[in-house]
Amino acid sequence: PILIMVVAICAVGVVITSVLPRFVAMFESSGVELPLATQMLINLSEFIRGNWLLLLLALGLMVYFLIRFVRTSEGRFWLDSLKLKLPIIGGLNKKIISARFTRTLSSLLKSGIPLMQSLEYVAAVVGNKIIRGKIINIKEDISKGANLTDSVRKAKFFEPVLIHMVKIGEDSGKLDEVMENTARIYDDEVDSSVQGLTSIIEPLMIIFMAVVVGALVFAIISPMFDMAQTLEM
Q1: Under a CB-based contact definition with an 8 Å cutoff, are residues 110 and 119 in contact?
Q2: Cα 155 to the chain's mean position, in Å?
Q3: Closest CA to 17 of 39, 55, 48
Q4: pLDDT digits over 98-150, tens only?
Q5: What does the alpha-carbon distance between residue 191 and residue 13 come to, in Å, rounded to a whole number?
Q6: Buried b (16+ CB within 10 A) or exposed e, 157-179
Q7: Most confident of the ranges 64-68, 197-201, 221-225
Q8: Residues 6+ apart with CB under 8 A from 71
């Protein structure tokens, strides 16, 4: 999908900056009244060609300040929150975090690391500042006497199936094995979600590219029909 988007942007850029200017002189000399879409496209082309350096500089500054903002504590919190709230992407990120949580916790417990210390390490590798805070809260609740199941449920992030698996692991005394099996389930769900998302996005991007390029071509060709009709008259 990213490749298709890059191709679409490049195609539009070439049409606007290189192809369209070659027709402008012909349109002006014909005296034909240009359609609104064609006139808007010509104005956009002239604006981009006349201010491309300023636009490039503005884009570079936007990217620079965005990166600077994301590297701050507030920016990282905002970005991590956005990752969890976006449609479709948010659900996928939650599954990825759940997979990291269960996989890392299982590996640490199997290595003989105590639960409290394991949770501290898990919090550092989940890759999301908001969830990191929730795992730290889980650790603090356990230190006050709560069990892992109730603490995970109190976090109000993990799915009921994960909470249920944590309870099974605690009750059976095989938390490491149960978390490993849960991690496999989430890994499979993540793979399926990514494949499904890709299969949806690719045709949508192709359709979008076809519509955009088709609209550009129509805006360029439509005045030519008017010119042909004028010449016949």
Answers
A1: no
A2: 25
A3: 48
A4: 999 999 999 999 999 999 999 999 999 998 999 999 999 999 999 998 999 99
A5: 35
A6: bbeeebbebbbebbeeeebbebb
A7: 64-68
A8: none
What span, in angstroms and rounded, lies between the C-alpha atoms of 21 and 102?
58
Q: How much is the pLDDT for 1?
A: 67
**Structural element, H or E, at residue 144:** none
Nearest to 89 by CA among 170, 193, 188, 4: 193
User: At 109, phi and psi to the nearest 5?
Assistant: -65, -40
DSSP H or E run through 72: none
pLDDT digits (tens, 9 = 90+) for 79-89: 999 999 988 88
- Which residue in this structure is represented by tokens 């989430």? 186
Q: Which two tokens stand for residue 3?
A: 């490749």
Distances (CA, A) of 55 to 19, 29, 42: 20, 30, 17
Query: Could you tell me where the DSSP H helices lie in 86-174?
Result: 89-110, 115-125, 129-143, 148-154, 160-172
Coil, strand or helix: which one is 173?
Answer: coil
Containing 31, the helix (H) or strand (E) segment is none
